[in-house]
Amino acid sequence: VQALANRYANVLSSAGVAPEQRVIIALPDGPGYVAALFGVLKIGAVVVMVNPELKPDAIEYFFEYSRAAVALVAAERADVFRAAAGRAARAPALLVVGTGDWDSRLAAASETWRNYPTHRDDAAIWLFSGGTTGRPKAAVQPHRSFVNTAQCYAGQVLRYTEDDVTLSVPKLYFGYATGSNLLFPFAAGAASVLFDERCTAEVVFSRIARYRPTILITVPTMINQMVSHPEAGRQDLSSVRLATSAGEGLPEALHARWNRTFGVPLLDGLGTAEMWHIFLSNRPGRVRPGTLGEVVPGFEIRVADEEGGDVPDGTMGHLWVRGGSRALGYWQQLEKSQTCFRGEWVVTGDLVRRDADGYYTYGGRADELLKVSGKWLSATEVEGCLLLHPAVSQVAVVGVADANGLVKPCAYVICRERREGLAEELKAFVCERLEPYKHPREVIFVESLPTTHLGKVDRGKLRAASPSSS
């Protein structure tokens, strides 16, 4: 890896990339991605990780927003990136990886490189917000953040060792995977499994059978697919000492299904781009399903009201966090930076509740709460309830204004079996388990849910697509 990264550094330098310039990496997972990331950092430049499967309009946005000098793109996606570059007001030079020309340039490059003397507070990697309600914004993370979380979360919670083998559902362009499936195992001398195929339950099961990982990095959507797979009970996960879940809320009922199906400790946690990685996590031997666990060593959490005052245990409030993985700010987003970054503290926009034992429960995003019939409603709670129904595979709940301008919950459902009367059945199902005002007034069956560049449900698109909003 060192030699290949040095070759990348030499090629990038010869292409004119200078320290502190941005370099977009839009490559599939594999050795080339790893070498590209370390190669960019070696020359003192800044990594901008982008989903290689984006459509041209999204690529155009990242080109113009980042003002990157160069973009490393895969040969099979080169035409799409060229089309976006042709429309962008400011486009980077494209270096197409995987062609004969690229292979020749790489082979001719030296395997030695003297690393640029970056400072721990220099920008290292841009991590993007999920973009679930608007355009993604970049949290500019310095080098120190990656060292800090490798020591605090990877070292003290997951306890990586050189004997570990990691396997990740999310790809490396997602910061959660960048840490858990690359930087953390590298820091411990462990091994990571990388593959470029799109993740399905079958693909994950086959990789587990072949590589026998000890740590599985996953997300609730894949957890649901795995436990719902008809061959789930026949899978051998005995090599996996723990699995982690992050990226979106993990319903307690889904956690229980995982435990019944696989029996592997599943550690749900919360991290943000603004703090790079996980700062709340369950721990081996101390897992409480339905919670985000406890504060990761090295971080401090407050639960605050609208004015910033602490709220008592058992009360939902705004999450404030501080620790050594704080971003420098948002790129070209001063007002949002001032709202989020308050001295040492980061106000994440998430709602949590702490209990007397120091465990935290997730309450959703503050900007995604719905006020229905004069009361606040968390979409996450309704989604978790609907997932208990055997006909529901995936679901997203959003607020939509009715004909009178009143906001009502609307559920978009991917079902395992669709039948007449199912929509009314699901409404009644929620009414029986939650307060009646929380039940979805409309249930819309869909084949798929729109996602953001990070693979999270794009709630903005769902609200715009609702019949009531048109």
Question: How would you portray this structure in words?
Answer:
The structure is a single chain. The chain has 470 residues and is an alpha/beta fold. It has three domains: 2-118, Rossmann fold (3-Layer(aba) Sandwich), CATH 3.40.50.980; 142-365, ANL, N-terminal domain (Rossmann fold, 3-Layer(aba) Sandwich), CATH 3.40.50.12780; 369-469, ANL, C-terminal domain (GMP Synthetase, Chain A, domain 3, 2-Layer Sandwich), CATH 3.30.300.30. The protein has 14 helices and 23 strands. The protein has helices spanning 2-14, 31-42, 56-66, 78-87, 100-108, 143-158, 175-188, 201-211, 220-228, 252-261, 334-340, 379-386, 422-433, 459-465; strands at 22-26, 46-49, 70-74, 93-97, 123-128, 138-142, 165-168, 191-193, 215-218, 242-245, 266-271, 278-281, 294-295, 299-304, 317-323, 341-342, 345-354, 360-365, 370-372, 375-377, 392-401, 407-415, 442-445. The chain has a seven-stranded mixed beta sheet with strand order 8-7-9-10-11-12-13, with helices on both faces. Helix 3 packs across helix 4 (78-87) and helix 6 crosses helix 7. The longest helix is centred in the first third of the chain and has 16 residues, at 143-158. The chain is globular and about 70 Å long. The termini are far apart.
Total DSSP helices: 14
Q: How many domains make up the coordinates?
A: 3
Q: What percentage of the residues does DSSP assign to strands (E)? A: 15-25%
CATH superfamily of the largest domain: ANL, N-terminal domain
Which regions are unreliable across 5 or more consecutive residues at pLDDT < 50? none
Separation of termini? Answer: 52 Å
Helix content: 25-40%
Going across the major beta sheet, what is the strand order? 8-7-9-10-11-12-13
Assembly status: single chain
CATH topology of the largest domain: Rossmann fold
What about the largest sheet? 7 strands, mixed
Rg measurement, Å: 22 Å
Helix/strand class: alpha/beta
CATH architecture classification of the largest domain? 3-Layer(aba) Sandwich
Provide the residue-averaged pLDDT: 94
Number of strands: 23
CATH class (first level) name of the largest domain: Alpha Beta
Shape: globular
